[in-house]
Write a structure and sequence with these properties.
Layout lengths: L4 H13 L2 H10 L3 H8 L5 E2 L2 H8 L8 E8 L5 H11 L8 E4 L9 E4 L9 E5 L6 H13 L9 E9 L9 E9 L5 H11 L25 H14 L3 H22 L25 E9 H11 L3 H19 L9 E7 L12 E7 L7 H22 L1 H10 L2 H13 L12 E7 L6 E2 L2 E9 L9 E7 L2 E9 L6 H36 L5 H13 L9 E9 L2 E9 L4 E5 L8 E5 H9 L4 H7 L2 E4 L2 H15 L2
Parallel strand pairs: 5-6, 9-11, 11-14, 16-19
Antiparallel strand pairs: 1-4, 2-7, 2-13, 3-4, 6-7, 8-15, 9-10, 12-13, 14-15, 16-17, 17-18, 19-20
Helix pairs in contact: 1-3, 3-8, 4-13, 4-14, 9-13, 10-11, 10-15, 11-12, 11-15
Length: 641
C-alpha cells in the first residue's frame, strides 16, 4: 500500500482532532489543523542526517564540536570592507542564516529552519591583537576563541576579525587574521574548502570589482512543534523499513568483507589481528584548547612521494608518526604496540554539493614501534594499501547509513553516558589519534585585493581522543596543525617542532636511499633482464592491433612479477580508445595479478595452460569479480591468438 500525501493529510487531521490534549493545545494557540499538517508535509524544511547529528550530540562543556580556520591576510584590510563582503555572500551560503530546531522531547533529529532573528553583527567580532603582536600571542588568542562553544540557539558560525599583526616574520606589518568557526554539524573538511571558494577571490583585482549588494532575507516562519512531530512521523511512515533495511545492508557488507578476507592473500592483515594500545592521548580532556602548526613545502613532500612511492598521505602519516614516537618516547610513555590512527576519507561526490558531512574512516597502524623512519614509512604504505582494501569491502556509504538508522534520542543519551561515566576507561580505544589530510586551493586566494598568506585548520577533540592532526594544503604549502587540550598536550608548539624535524629526517634518509636505490637498479638492469619481457612486448602489440575491441577489457590492472628476492610491477590501463603498459609500483591496485617471472615466461611460450596455473594457485588474481573476469578473458584471448 502506497501512502499518498493527500491521504495522510486526511488521516492525520482526523486523528489529531480526536486527541483532547492536542485539541487543547490547538485551541489555545488558535492554529488550524490543516495548517499544521500542511507544515508537516513541507519538503523545504530539511532534517539533519544521522552522521551530522553525531557531531551535535557529541557536544559537551569540554568538547565544543566546531571546526575553525585561521587565515592570515596581508595588508591593512578594513573591517567595514570585510563585513560588506561577508554580507554580500550570505545568499550563497543558506545554512549561515539557518538554525537548528529540535523536535519535542528530542524524539528525532533536529531540522534546519530560517532564523527569524538573524543579525550578521551577532556573528562578526572585531578585536585587536594584544602586545606583543607576534605569533605566540596570536596562537594563544586563537586557542581562547576556539575553546568557547557556539550558541546552539543561533546559526552555528562566528568570525573574529583580528587586527594589528605587527611582529610575525614574513607577514607585512598591519596585517589581519581571520578566525572562522563553523559547527561540524554543518560541514566537513571538504565542504569547508568549497565554502572558502565562495568567500574569497581567485584574482587580485577583487577590490576593483563592483560588489553586489546584500540580498534581502525574508525568513520563513518557524514551524509549530506539533508539525515537527508530525513531519518526523510522516518520514517514518514513508520508510518504515529504514532501520531493518540498513541493518541488512550492513550485515551483507560485513559478510562480504569477511569472505573476501578469508579468500584474500591479505587475510593475515585483518584489522582484528592487532590490539590498539592505550596512550596518553586517550584520557579525559580539559576545556582549554592548545594548538600548534608546522608549515612544509608541498613540492618537498611530493618529491619524497615520488622517490619512496606510495601517496602524499603516506608521507604525511609517516612524518606525523615520527613526531608522535619522539613525543611519547621523551615522556617514557611510548607503547610497545604501534599507535593506530583514524584517517577520515571523503566519500563526497559532485552531486553531494558543499554542505553536511560525507566522510568515512580508515584505521592505520602508525608504526610508532619502529625506530627507522624509512622502515616506518614502508610499514605505513602497506597499512594504507590494506586499509583501503578493507574500506572498499565494508562499503563506506553503507556504514554512513547506519548513523541515519540510530534514533537520535538514544544516540544522544549514549554519548552523554559515555562521557559522564568515563566508559572509555573500561575498554581499549578504537584508535589513538586522528590524522586528516584536506587538499585546499592550489593557487593564491585574495580578500578585497589582499593576499591570503596562510591557512590553518583547527579541529575538535573529545574525551578519549585528545589529539587530532590536520594537514591542509594551500598555494604550495602544507600546514600540519595539531589540536589538543591543556591536559593532554599542553606543549602543542613543541610537538609541531617535532613534526618539522621528523620531516627533515625523513627527507635526508629518502634522498640517500633514493641515490643508493637508483645505483642498485642500474646495476641490476645491466646484469639481467626480466625473463618475461617478451610477454609484455607482445601484449602491447596485441592491444594496439585490437583497438576496435578494447571496450571489452576496459579497466586498470597491475601485474606483480616475482623475481626471487625482488618483484617488478607492470600497470596495464585500458580505456575504450587506447591501452598502455608501463613499469610501475602500485600499492593500491584495483586488480592485482601475482605470478613468478619464470612461470609467466613459460605461460607465454605455451608450456603451461592458464586454467592449470589458476587451479594450482601459481597465478593469483585479486580484486572485484567483474574486473577479474575481464582480465582473465583478456589473458585467455591473448594467449590463444
Amino acid at each position: 500500500m502506497i501512502l499518498r500525501k493527500e491521504h495522510l493529510f486526511e488521516v492525520l487531521s482526523e486523528k489529531i482532532s480526536k486527541v483532547p490534549a492536542y485539541v487543547g493545545m490547538i485551541m489555545a494557540k488558535k492554529i488550524d489543523i490543516k495548517d499544521i499538517v500542511q507544515d508537516a508535509l513541507d519538503g523545504d524544511i530539511k532534517q539533519i542526517s544521522g552522521y551530522d547529528a553525531a557531531f551535535l550530540y557529541a557536544e559537551s562543556p569540554t568538547s565544543p564540536m566546531h571546526i575553525a580556520t585561521l587565515n592570515i591576510v596581508e595588508g591593512s584590510l578594513k573591517f567595514e570592507d570585510f563585513k560588506e563582503i561577508v554580507a554580500s555572500k550570505m545568499h550563497l551560503l543558506p545554512k549561515f542564516r539557518k538554525r537548528l530546531l529540535n523536535v519535542p522531547l528530542n524524539l528525532d533529529y533536529p531540522y534546519w529552519v530560517d532564523d527569524p532573528n538573524f543579525d550578521i553583527d551577532l556573528h562578526l567580532n572585531r578585536i585587536k591583537l594584544p602586545d606583543p603582536s607576534n605569533w605566540k600571542t596570536l596562537r594563544e588568542l586563537t586557542s581562547t576563541i576556539f575553546s568557547s562553544p557556539l550558541d546552539l540557539r543561533r546559526p552555528l558560525w562566528s568570525v573574529h576579525f583580528i587586527e594589528g599583526i605587527n611582529e610575525i616574520a614574513q607577514v607585512p606589518k598591519g596585517s589581519v587574521a581571520i578566525v572562522t568557526k563553523v559547527h561540524h554539524v554543518m560541514i566537513d573538511g571538504g565542504s569547508g574548502v568549497g565554502m572558502m571558494g565562495v568567500l574569497y577571490d581567485k584574482e587580485e583585482d577583487g577590490k576593483k570589482k563592483k560588489r553586489t549588494k546584500p540580498k534581502p532575507f525574508t525568513p520563513e516562519p518557524l514551524p509549530d512543534e506539533l508539525s515537527l512531530l508530525l513531519k518526523s512521523g510522516y518520514s517514518f511512515l514513508k520508510n518504515p523499513f529504514k532501520i531493518p533495511k540498513t541493518i541488512l545492508e550492513t550485515g551483507y557488507a560485513f559478510a562480504k568483507s569477511r569472505a573476501q578476507k578469508t579468500l584474500s592473500i591479505q587475510k593475515e592483515f585483518s584489522s582484528a589481528t592487532y590490539p590498539v594500545p592505550i596512550s596518553i592521548f586517550n584520557g579525559s580532556i580539559s576545556a582549554k584548547r592548545t594548538w600548534g602548526t608546522a608549515i612544509l613545502s608541498f613540492d618537498r613532500i611530493n618529491a619524497l612521494r615520488k622517490t619512496a612511492g606510495g601517496t602524499i598521505n603516506d608521507v604525511i602519516l609517516a612524518i606525523c608518526a615520527g613526531a608522535i614516537r619522539r613525543y611519547l618516547q621523551e615522556r617514557e610513555r611510548l607503547p610497545l604496540q604501534p599507535l593506530v590512527a583514524n584517517v577520515p576519507i571523503s566519500i563526497r561526490t559532485e552531486v553531494d554539493g558543499h554542505g553536511g558531512n560525507k566522510i568515512a574512516n580508515m584505521m592505520i597502524q602508525l608504526a610508532t614501534h619502529i625506530a627507522d623512519p624509512l622502515d616506518r614509512l614502508e610499514y605505513i604504505q602497506e597499512q594504507t594499501m590494506l586499509g583501503k582494501t578493507r574500506h572498499k569491502a565494508n562499503g563506506a556509504k553503507t556504514l554512513a547509513k547506519m548513523a541515519d538508522a540510530v534514533p537520535f534520542g538514544l544516540a544522544n543519551l549514549a554519548a552523554g553516558l559515555y562521557s559522564k561515566y568515563n566508559i572509555k576507561d573500561l575498554h581499549r580505544p578504537p584508535f589513538n589519534v586522528t590524522i586528516t589530510n584536506v587538499p585546499g586551493p592550489r593557487n593564491l586566494l585574495y580578500l578585497n585585493g589582499h593576499k591570503v598568506v596562510s591557512i590553518f585548520g583547527l579541529t575538535p577533540v573529545v574525551d578519549g581522543f585528545g589529539l587530532i592532526i590536520a594537514a591542509f594544503s594551500y598555494n604550495g604549502q602544507v600546514s600540519i596543525t595539531t589540536t589538543s587540550d591543556s591536559k593532554t598536550m599542553p606543549d602543542a608548539d613543541l610537538f609541531s617542532k617535532y613534526v618539522r624535524e621528523s620531516a627533515n629526517e625523513l627527507e635526508d634518509l629518502i634522498k640517500k636511499a633514493g641515490s643508493k636505490k637508483a645505483a642498485e637498479v642500474l646495476k641490476a638492469k645491466t646484469k639481467a633482464k626480466t625473463k618475461s619481457t617478451p610477454f609484455f612486448t607482445a601484449l602491447r602489440k596485441y592491444l594496439k592491433n585490437t583497438s576496435a575491441t578494447l571496450k571489452k577489457y576496459t579497466g586498470e590492472y597491475h601485474m606483480e612479477i616475482g623475481k626471487g628476492q625482488s618483484t617488478e610491477g607492470y600497470d596495464i590501463r585500458i580505456t575504450a580508445s587506447k591501452a598502455s603498459i608501463r613499469k610501475a609500483k602500485n600499492l593500491d591496485p584495483k586488480v592485482l595479478v601475482e605470478i613468478d617471472d619464470d612461470i609467466l615466461f613459460d605461460l607465454y611460450k605455451g608450456t603451461y595452460e592458464f586454467e592449470e596455473l589458476m587451479i594450482q594457485g601459481r597465478i593469483k588474481i585479486t580484486g572485484p569479480v567483474a574486473a577479474k573476469n575481464k582480465f582473465k578473458k583478456l589473458l585467455s584471448t591473448f594467449l590463444a591468438r
